[in-house]
Amino acid sequence: MIFGIKENVLTMYGTIWEYDGQAFIYYLNALESKYAEIIIRLHTYGGDVFAGNLICNAIERSNSKIKIIVDGLAASMGAVIILSATDVEIVNNGYVMIHAPHSGSYGNAKDHESSAKLLRLMEDNFIDKLMMRTGKTREEVALWLTADTWLGAQEAQDLGIVASVIPASVSTVYPAFDPDDVGEAEVYNMYGALLTNLPTPAASILDKPQLPQSNFNDNMKQLLITAFALQGLNAQSSDTAVLDALQKKFSDTEAAGNLEKIGKEAAEAKLKQYEDGRVKSLIDGAEAALGKKFSDDEKKTYETIGATSGVEALELVFKTVVPAKPAAPNIGAVIQNGSGKGAAAAGRENWDFAQWQKEDPKGLEKMAAEDTEKFQALFNAKYQK
Prior knowledge:
Elements: E1 2-6, E2 9-13, H1 20-32, E3 37-44, H2 49-61, E4 65-75, H3 77-81, E5 87-91, E6 95-98, H4 109-134, H5 138-144, E7 149-152, H6 153-158, E8 164-166, H7 179-182, H8 184-192, H9 218-227, H10 239-251, H11 256-290, H12 296-309, H13 311-321, H14 331-334, H15 353-359, H16 361-370, H17 372-383
Parallel strand pairs: 2-3, 3-4, 4-5, 4-6, 5-8
Antiparallel strand pairs: 1-2, 6-7
Helix pairs in contact: 1-2, 9-11, 11-12, 11-13, 12-13, 15-16, 16-17
């Protein structure tokens, strides 16, 4: 998901991916330390069930008063998440979609039977939450899960799934349409095009001046130890020990302010040089694996991803570009309530909006957040706006 933070508001837009549960808990804990009341703005067509359950549990056990506002769509696992708070609002042109959990499995008959058992356990959990919220019988709720059950804002309020309906915060309202005809992914993208002004990226919540971020790998730590002549440390020392040594190095200097700035700039320059080298190595490796040279535009795109989103994000991109041997899926990563189709190969300059939706929905999310002009052009072309 794309997380954003502005004061006590945590925005969550996009697909719920495998590690988004841990990310949500991190950001929620940071807000809980500052605010007694927290607002979560949600727009999602679902995703990983285990990550979604982590989000639900964190909301339910929070000591802060939490309100959830559905900005456009709460589908699949998103519909389950809104059941974890009692104060839930939805925009008057928004939707809720409920269905049973989906999965794929690989292996022998026992493997498939095990996957089926897990899906039934998840489905029972969904039914229990819906019964508790709506007061409906098990038979009534179970019927909702037999297909994609779409609820308009007023119907969701009438059933008790949301507490109230509020005016939409966007000026453009789509004409009436049947969400069953387009599916949850398309409904999500239609509203997503109107919600491109995200608040401050969530990572900026830790806006205190700090040294280069922790979670260093051994090479990064060795660069810092060498650059600042830190005594008694090596690449295997803990991140905390390296950061403490750097702080002491700065504070022990008479001109601590100036030297700290110079030292940080030197460290950042060395780290940038190291990260640039890793990005180049990844690009060269992908070219070798594909047996082709990337165009200048493609290289620039990959370099931008590495510089702005990190080497790990670029590695994930290349996992969708470079062919890999088939492997048995991890049920924790595979089970999603949204679509889970694979990404396409490189050379996406001529993709239209529909092809992005089909082949790389997560890439489309990233484009909506980081390249709004391109996203809006594709969106306008599809919907003839």
